[in-house]
Design a protein that fits this description.
This protein is an alpha+beta fold. Helix content is about 40%, strand content about 10%. Helix 3 packs antiparallel against helix 7.
């Protein structure tokens, strides 16, 4: 009897892979992507220039291609452009941030934040066209189990940031703690846990960012050949 190949799937829900083929060689494709993504920076100075909903939709669809444990896709992206809701979120965020800077942050933490000049003022929330609230689903919508929740949502969030950058948009990763107020303000169900808040829009023309250095290849990678 001939042994069946491990790739010989008889189930009807298997389809042929349609792989991405870069223009040029794999090295050229990888290099071009790196040259694009290395320009991505976190910003806190957003323009009020409108971003069409269609652009945000494509960014979110790209994030939704992320792998996840048992393909449960345990994420939901709440895209907020409503000015009143954004302002309500700003007020709640600033209250949480004041508590952090005044009472909860250690001296070492505050010292590490000094080069970035962060503070409780989050006025950019009123200015930026979109707030994307990333929700981690602790169960599926019908109550089913999810797996590798933080890993899955983390990867999807990374794709979200990358897709926004490719669309020419600037982003900020923000995790005010605690974040339960976001679920309350947005009237979301209990199984949705706020994971990250990402302002998304165009940077101001005079936007500046800290002069930081990223790790070199020999610092961030180890090759065992």
């Amino acid at each position: 009897m001939t042994k069946q190949s491990t790739n010989d799937h008889s189930e009807s829900n298997w389809i042929p892979l349609d792989p991405h083929t870069p223009d040029g060689s794999s090295l050229e494709g990888a290099t071009k992507f790196y040259q694009t993504i290395q320009k991505r920076r976190t910003v806190r100075h957003f323009s009020d220039k409108p971003v069409p909903r269609e652009v945000i939709e494509q960014v979110l669809l790209a994030a939704g291609t992320s792998p996840s444990g048992a393909h449960k896709q345990p994420w939901r992206f709440i895209a907020v452009s409503n000015k009143d809701i954004k302002h309500k979120i700003r007020l709640a965020v600033e209250e949480v941030e004041r508590e952090f800077y005044e009472d909860r942050a250690s001296d070492r933490w505050l010292e590490d934040l000094e080069p970035f000049e962060t503070n409780p003022d989050k006025s950019y929330i009123d200015t930026v066209p979109w707030l994307i609230i990333v929700m981690a689903l602790r169960t599926t919508d019908d109550g089913g189990q999810v797996y590798y929740l933080n890993e899955s949502v983390g990867i999807a969030t990374g794709l979200l940031l990358t897709a926004a950058h490719h669309a020419g948009l600037a982003t900020l990763t923000h995790t005010p703690s605690p974040m339960k107020f976001l679920r309350d303000v947005l009237d979301r169900p209990e199984h949705e846990r706020p994971y990250m808040m990402i302002p998304m829009g165009y940077p101001t023309e005079d936007c500046k960012v800290p002069d930081i250095k990223r790790k070199d290849l020999d610092e961030l990678a180890v090759f065992i050949e």
